[in-house]
Amino acid sequence: MLALSVALGGLLSTPAQAAPRVGMVQAVGVTSSSVTLTWPKYRRAKTYEVQRASNYAFTKGKRSLRTRATRATVRGLRRGVEYCFKVRAYSAKGKHLATSARTCKPAAAISVPKRGTTVSALTYNVCSKVCDTRSDLRMSPWSVRRGVVTTTIRRSGADVVALQESSGWKTIAQDLGPTFTVVPDFGYYLSSSLVFRTSRFAQVVDSVHELDPYGEPVEVTTPRAATIRLPNGRLATWAELRDRTTGKHTIFVSAHISDQKGRAANARRRAETRSLMAQVDAANTNRSRVVYLGDFNSNKSRGHAGDTPARVMGSAGYLDAYDQARTLTRPNFNSATQGSRVPVRSYTHGDHIDKVWVRRGDGIGVLSWANINPVRSGRYVGPIGSDHCPILVRLRLS
Fold it and tell me: Which of 96, 106, 102, 24 is nearest to 66 (CA)?
């Protein structure tokens, strides 16, 4: 049994000359009161001490637990509070051998409904022909990557797929159909697209009766789906879908927010996110729940002031599915690949710029979050489909 003790004095302090680091610590499981961590076995280590604190500087709420395993569940956490963790390795004689980098993860703030249906949602910036024009990326051309992307989506089991930088993929309907339906008329040629599994969802339509030229009444239907022009010139796509099993409606949104850093870029991304949410809210006349997906260029390493998309989403009650997921797969493999088969590893926050946002109170819980880019021997299987990884989230909708 793991013994929990208060971290005191020099016993838990970091040495003045930092020891070699324990390998990457990953948060692979989360509840409203616990975080489960894993790390690789350190040579000659017989025991490990897992330290946690309720702030990045490790000055508040410090606690620790001891274990012989390379996995531990830290309990007694407060819902929605972000905690930071470090792991220290010790020899059989109690000598300190190494300390890991810190990794930070909040306890979940959203409960998973006990009953409901499971929906798998995939967000994927496919960088179709956009990557063909970038000299800084050593990637196969879209003519090759298109097949990789198609196979990835088909094998993912996703019910809803949000695509970004998809303007060069003119054959989405042909490549994915009839398993998937492309949101009517908009998605396949725009910068952000939506497709959904035909057997699972149906497009919601508005229906009115009008008179034809002969005075006969006819029913005219309009899909509840549209494109949204953002201040960055990109087009987002939204669609209201009906679950064929439950009959309930959900709006799914695919969007791409600008990148870059600095005060001007932060203000621009704030304006884009606000515009996106305002337009979706205005279109949501049925007051259906909304799930946002896409490349939001949002991550915690930008700091509170710089991560403007997260601040805007958070002010409306939306939380990152990555932080709410009960299980996580490859949580510290950044969702951006930079065009390389070598995963970009992010030790502290994960730093995923590709997001799924769900709102507190909408009856949506997050079962799992996964980077599903195929991996073999620690490297992404080539040729890679994009300079982004596909992120698959399993949601439970009450």
Answer: 96
Query: H/E element holding 333?
Result: none
CA atoms within 13 A on the CB side of 10: 3
How large a percentage of the chain has pLDDT more than 90? 79
Interior/surface letters 165-177, b for 16+ CB within 10 angstroms, e for the rest: bbbbbeebeebbe
* pLDDT class of 19 with cuts at 50, 70, 90: low
Nearest CA to 85 out of 71, 97, 96 is that of 71
**Strand, coil or helix: 292:** strand
Per-residue burial over 208-223, b if 16 or more Cβ lie within 10 Å, else e, is eeeeeeeeeeeeeeee
DSSP 8-state class, residue 170: T
Torsion angles phi and psi, residue 396, rounded to 5? -115, 120
Please give the share of the chain, as a percent, with pLDDT higher than 70: 92
Using CA atoms, how far apart are residues 198 and 158, in angstroms rounded to an integer?
11
What is the helix, strand, coil percentage profile of the chain, to 5? 20, 40, 45
Query: When comparing pLDDT for 20 and 242, which is higher?
Result: 242
**Rounded Cα–Cα distance for residues 27 and 326 (Å):** 10
| Close Cβ partners of 144 (under 8 Å, ≥ 6 residues apart) | 383
Report d(CA 354, CA 333) in Å as an integer. 12
Is pLDDT of 208 > 90? no
Give me the DSSP letters along 116-136.
-EEEEEEEEE--TTTGGG-TT
- Residue 189 pLDDT class (50, 70, 90 cuts): low
In whole angstroms, what is the distance from residue 1 CA to residue 57 CA?
Answer: 29
In sequence order, what DSSP letters do the residues of 348-359 get, joined into one string? SS----EEEEEE
CA separation, residue 120 to residues 65, 152, 156, 163, 246 (Å): 35, 14, 9, 14, 15
Q: For residue 345, give the H/E element and its range.
A: none
Q: How many CB atoms lie within 10 A of CB 303?
A: 10
The Cα 80–Cα 57 span in angstroms is 18
Does residue 195 have a pLDDT over 50? yes
